[in-house]
Fold:
Amino acid sequence: MSSLAARIDAIVLDVGGVFLVPHQEPVGAALAPHGLTIDEAQIDRAHYLGVGALDACNGPDQVHTCYLSAFASTLGIAADHVERATTVLSELWAQPTLGRWRRLVPGSTEALRHLVASGHTVAILSNSDGTVEQQLLELEVCQVGDGAGVQVRHITDSGVLGISKPDPRIFHHVAQAIGVPPERCLYVGDTVRYDVIGARGAGFHPLHFDPLGLCRSADVHGHIASLTELGVLLQS
Structure:
């Protein structure tokens, strides 16, 4: 048994950035009326660079300005149009997430299937707007109980619970729901400020999902580039 596997009894996974990133179609449609076009090939990189900018922001970023500004720049929006694009995207992000976060992160669903088939207890914890369970079900990623996706133990959506990461109470809610002490839970998410710091504050073991190796945080924490890599870590 690996040293990591010996320390945990449950794996709790984020959704945004781990399973889903914004899809290019709604993003492109929102920008098109303003004469702005995007580089669709950059959509995944735009998300993770946006997350890096979010982590580097001082203070709260409840309106996603730091994330969306970096997101727009990475999509190829000219520097003198980034402010306008950020405003447009802020309006899009204020709408329900269902339908926007539907681009699948390559390999994550398959790796989840392997983790569950290997006997691991797996749960989902996402900061969302009450639609994450429906999103995961419709995209056949996972669900609680039988279905076309992978069967997981529990799904927590901050929009349903009324508590958001990094508040330790949302992590403790998941631990209680699956019957595993926080110190025996691993949490995987794509941000430092909400996922790594939130999980650690709740007593979970945090891992930063960073597929492009972009993390420049001064916080000392572990990283993985994919959920497949997590599976290997648990076996090595």
Observations:
- Residues 20 and 32 are 23 Å apart (CA to CA).
- The chain has a mean pLDDT of 94.
- The beta strands are 10-13, 20-22, 101-104, 121-126, 142-144, 150-152, 154-157, 185-189, 205-209, 222-224.
- The radius of gyration is 17 Å.
